[in-house]
Amino acid sequence: MMPLQAEPAARAIAKPGESVEIAPGVHWIGALDPTLRTFDIILRTANGTTYNSYMVRGTDGVAIIDTVKAEFADDFFARIESVARYDEIRIIVLNHLEPDHTGALPELMRRAPQAKLYISTRATAMLKALLKPKEDKGPLAFETVGTGDEVSLGDRTLRFLHTPFLHWPDTQCTYLVEEGVLFSGDVFGCHYCDTRLLNDRCGDFRFAFDYYYAHIMRPFKTHVMDALKLIEPLPLKTIAPTHGPILRDRPRRYITRYRELSTASFADKIGNEERSLIIFYMSAYGSTARMAEAICAGAEEQPGLRVSLYDLEGGETQPFVDLIESADALALGSPTINGDAVKPIWDLLSSLAVIDLKGKLGAAFGSYGWTGEAVRMIEDRMRGLKMRVPVAGLRVKLIPTDEELDECRAFGRDIASAIASGEKGRVIDFAELG
Amino acid sequence: MAKAKITFSDIDQTVNVPAGTRIIEVSEKIGAGIIYGCREGDCGTCMTHVEEGWNNLTEPSVLEEKVLRENMASRHDRLACQAQILGDCKVKPA
């Protein structure tokens, strides 16, 4: 791997040991991690990431907003020391307690013992788990804050926005009222490392922005929408996230993009009143395929239900994940091979963690030769993914007969009625949830 | 067996459940917006606001009370992984 820091870009804005002023009295004091290629196991990055933290100076002291990953603490402290003394720090705001933003916190608290921590109302347990305070050292000096709470730095005011589940329960945003700077935590962030640091100076990072959203924020779309209601009315000059470029040029574009990405699944709905069922199958000898077709035919008899049928062998996983996100129900068909469902089924099921599956219906079916475990295993996985499985799975031994195909059509009708029964206003019996 | 109705107001859905069922057993399958973490009363992620029927849930345990306090719970907030439904109630994510 090339040591990218050896030759900083000629137009570098972030230089070793120097902070970067992004607004009057507001400095970036974060760290660059250009050689990182995989973040948190699940995310890839083609040019590393940044751990952004910020310092705000007021007439009545200094605030530090978030810290950096522990391995980069030296860079962070060097940048703090370029603009402030530790005894000036009165306030440490933690917008998110994940270790990539709190790694340098214990050392910062040691160097600035007078500083008080400000965390969201949902972060207390996490803070204690992170710092493991010892009782003989006295209680931790922290305050929990919610939307509208403020803390003053004299001529500067930090106002807090409670934005939980973006992407942990503890997450919040902090708004510097006088300068219109939103310290947004991971919201509006991305894994993209560029020494030019500012969105109007660095390379094209739009793909990284969307990719980050897709993997980090997408499972929490409802919470994104709630947060946008708090953020959109703010006068904004700059969005300062904890990863990736600082968004000072037309920051509202990024808010608009979040709204687009969060509403996409609703807009993708095929009709306001229409419900949808997606049937996927894999078939070795055509038997599971014939079952799938019969199930599709049965389900289609239900008015107001759009049924789609796909052979998993013919597609890539990602577009199928998008389809499932906007569907009401998912039926999966797999033969049993060596006592298991086949790999493409598991590949699809293991790709669904990035979408919200709560309340969706699941069903499983398949033909088998002599053991037939696949159907039950798929149902168990669907339940593990918090889906309802209201109709018991259907298995057919080897080639389906006409009678068995009738059973498949009935199975399709049963799934369709279960989808229809989920309509609002109707009292559902617990036993129906499966 | 005694039954009770729980309404999830964020999705406008009501489920008829056997008395004694925990909220967690119902909410995900019906698609309510409550999010769970540890599922054992420790993390406080599943904090839920009880809009109606506060007295129709089991009393919070000492441990649940502690977690609710730590998470700055307001009056009539409960942990959905702990609270058992005894009578009709209406809840939403806190």
Write structural notes for this entry.
The complex is a heterodimer of chains A (434) and B (94). Chain A is α/β, with parallel strands linked by helices and 434 residues long. Chain A folds into 2 domains: 10-267, Metallo-beta-lactamase, Chain A; 275-433, Rossmann fold, CATH 3.40.50. Chain A is built from 12 helices and 22 strands. Chain A has helices spanning 73-81, 99-102, 105-111, 124-131, 206-217, 221-231, 252-267, 287-300, 317-325, 343-349, 374-384, 402-421, and strands at residues 20-23, 26-28, 31-33, 38-39, 43-44, 49-51, 54-58, 61-65, 89-93, 116-120, 142-145, 150-152, 157-162, 172-176, 181-185, 238-241, 275-281, 305-311, 329-333, 361-368, 394-397, 427-429. Chain A has a 7-stranded mixed β-sheet with strand order 1-2-7-8-9-10-11, with no helix packed on it. In chain A, strands 12-13-14-15-16 form a 5-stranded mixed β-sheet. In chain A, strands 18-17-19-20-21 form a 5-stranded parallel β-sheet, sandwiched between helices. In chain A, strand 7 (54-58) and strand 8 (61-65) form a beta hairpin. In chain A, helix 6 (221-231) packs antiparallel against helix 7 and helix 8 packs across helix 12 (402-421). The longest helix of chain A is centred in the C-terminal third of the chain and has 20 residues, at 402-421. Chain A is elongated and about 80 Å long. The two termini of chain A are 51 Å apart. By secondary structure, chain B is α+β, with helices and mostly antiparallel strands. Chain B has one domain: Beta-grasp domain (Ubiquitin-like (UB roll)). Chain B is 18% helix and 28% strand. Chain B has helices spanning 23-30, 62-70; strands at 3-8, 13-18, 47-52, 77-79, 89-93. Chain B has a 5-stranded mixed β-sheet with strand order 2-1-5-3-4, covered by helices on one side. In chain B, a hairpin with a 4-residue loop joins strand 1 (3-8) and strand 2 (13-18). The longest helix of chain B has 9 residues, at 62-70. The N and C termini of chain B lie far apart (30 Å). The chains are: A alpha/beta (434), B alpha+beta (94). Chains A and B meet through strand 22 of A and strand 2 and helix 1 of B. Strand 22 of chain A pairs parallel with strand 2 (13-18) of chain B, so a sheet runs across the interface. Chain B: InterPro entries: 2Fe-2S_ferredoxin-like_sf (IPR036010), 2Fe-2S_ferredoxin-type (IPR001041), 2Fe2S_fd_BS (IPR006058), Beta-grasp_dom_sf (IPR012675). Chain B: It comes from Thiorhodococcus minor.
